[in-house]
Amino acid sequence: MSVLFSRINKQTSLQILGISLCALIFRHNAAAESSCNTKSLQGSWELQSAIYRDQHGKVVSEIKDQQTKSRKLIAGRHFSFITWHQDGKFEVAASGRFSSDAKGYHEQVDATSLPRLQGKTYHFQCQIEGDKWLHQGLEDGIQIEEHWQRVSAVHQ
Question: What is the pTM of this model?
Fold first, then answer.
């Protein structure tokens, strides 16, 4: 009887261990998916790369190798960004309010250099891992995927 009881206890212990590991993995993945919150977004960010696709998936624009630069500041519940070219030529700036929730990151533009952006609200999927921010979603029919890097205190 004690051998049978010992075997049942080992099986039960392994089952409990397996369930516990699954719960930990699920909890870790859920935390990673919801890492984009108001607190984790605070600070200065610089665009590292971006790709923009039309509704058919065709690449219509791409930013790489720092040929176009962009900096986004998140403070409290507000955002602002400015984008310029390597030669210093200004491209666009905007600011407004933002929010984040389980569905992602949302920007409401209230001031901009591009009239077509004025008053619009954009919804993006958002994932932050360490000092990297993946920002993707639709902006005026264009699928965007932007990779941002937090500006560290050393670089400020």
Answer: 0.74
